[in-house]
Amino acid sequence: MAGVEFAFNWFYADSKDIAMFSSGRLPARAPGTDPALPTVGTGDYDWRGFLTPAQHAQGSTRRPAQF
What we know:
The chain is an all-beta fold. It has strands spanning 8-13, 18-23, 58-60.
């Protein structure tokens, strides 16, 4: 799923397990940035690239510490 360019949340469920993960190009935001608020256009709050797939939100009942 690393080739998916748009943000998408994937969900899976069967009789034993449930899981979710996000895919796409998610921005690595500048430190101190609140994504719910606007920022000034000085460049201090510009994206710092994109998150790696391992940094995306994910969880599974097989790994309950992450769910």
